[in-house]
Amino acid sequence: MRPRQRPSPLHALLAGLLLGACAHAPPPAPEPPAEVRGEAPPITEAARRALAGTWVYAGGAAEQAQVDEAVARATADMGFLERGFAAQALGDRARPRDRYTLSFDGST
Questions:
Q1: How would DSSP label each residue in 67-108?
Q2: Potential cystine with 59: which of 15, 31, 55, 63 (Cβ 3.0-4.6 Å)?
Q3: Is the dihedral of CA 84, 87, 92, 96 positive or negative?
Q4: Cα distances (angstroms) measured from residue 94 to each of 8, 25, 68, 85
């Protein structure tokens, strides 16, 4: 059995540098969000009357085509299998609905 040799100063220096490179400060704690409000400001009665009701989409084929183009751009870099699923899911969610209904209940 050979006696154990002491590491050379170069080896010790390299080991120290490697260990030092691995040791790093923890990431900074996330900053707390700006003031968070508990409730939205109240809506005036005039605004409620003006906004409440059923709104019908008045866009046309040009707006629909823009949605399809945006979905195609968003999914262009995806793989073959992912692109089909993502394009369908994004398209279904991004297309405007035929109509929207707004109503108010108390302050909401």
A1: HHHHHHHHHTTS-HHHHHHHHHHHHHHHSPPSEEEE---TT-
A2: 63
A3: negative
A4: 65, 42, 9, 14
CB-CB neighbours of 75 under 10 Å: 19
- On the question of pLDDT at 36 being above 70, the answer is no
What's the one-letter identity of residue 49? Answer: R
Tokens (6 digits) for 49:
């009357």
Q: Is 10 exposed, middle or buried (0-12, 13-18, 19+ CB in 10 A)?
A: exposed
42 DSSP assignment? P
- Which burial class, exposed, middle or buried, applies to 91 when counting CB atoms under 10 A from its CB (0-12, 13-18, 19+)? middle
Q: Are 94 and 71 in contact (CB under 8 A)?
A: yes
State the average pLDDT over residues 62-77: 90
Q: Which residue has 């993502």 as its token pair?
A: 86
Looking at the chain, the whole-number percentage of residues with pLDDT higher than 90 is: 21
